[in-house]
Amino acid sequence: MSIYKLYHGYPPTEHEDVLNMELVAGDTLPEYPFYLKDQDGADVDMTGFVAEMHVAYAVPLTIPANIIDLTGGEFFIDFGPGDLVQGIYSAEIQVTNSSGKIRTWQKIKLIITPEIL
């Protein structure tokens, strides 16, 4: 059984405490990078995996991830038009492996500020 660890950002940092993601309402960039590693720090082969972000809006939003490096365990959360709404929200990353087993990382806070213009 693999123990998965979630890393984020550049350079990759292990997700342990609260991850504050500061974003602007209506933006569709940046693509936010995440990396999946095993208990020894090796990249996880994500072939057959599904990754997504869940945002705790009044009507919860699921944002599918783009897995960009199957064997390197790298994926991005791509925010689409209307995904980022002003406010402070809880979020989580959920990964389902090729066997259907699910691992969820919570303690993600989206801090979404309004555009100036």
List keywords for this structure.
single chain, Immunoglobulin-like, 117 residues
Report what the structure shows:
The chain has 117 residues and is mainly β. 0% of the residues lie in helices and 50% in strands. It has strands at 5-8, 13-14, 19-24, 32-37, 50-55, 61-69, 74-77, 87-96, 102-113. The protein has a 9-stranded mixed β-sheet, with no helix packed on it. Strand 6 (61-69) and strand 7 (74-77) form a beta hairpin.
What is the secondary structure topology, with strand pairs?
Elements: E1 5-8, E2 13-14, E3 19-24, E4 32-37, E5 50-55, E6 61-69, E7 74-77, E8 87-96, E9 102-113
Parallel strand pairs: 3-9
Antiparallel strand pairs: 1-2, 1-4, 4-7, 5-6, 5-8, 6-7, 8-9
Radius of gyration, CA atoms, in whole angstroms: 14 Å
Q: Just give the CATH class.
A: Mainly Beta
Query: What distance lies between the first and last C-alpha atoms, to the nearest angstrom?
Result: 50 Å
What share of the residues lie within helices?
Answer: under 10%
Largest sheet: 9 strands, mixed
What CATH architecture label applies? Answer: Sandwich
| Multimer state | single chain
Number of beta strands: 9
Overall 3D shape: elongated
Q: How much strand?
A: over 45%
Low-confidence stretches: none
CATH H level: which superfamily? Immunoglobulins
Tally the helices: what do you get?
0
Q: Label the structural class.
A: mainly beta
And the CATH topology?
Immunoglobulin-like
In short:
With 117 residues, the protein is mainly β. It has no helices and nine strands. It has one domain: Immunoglobulin-like (Sandwich), CATH 2.60.40.10.
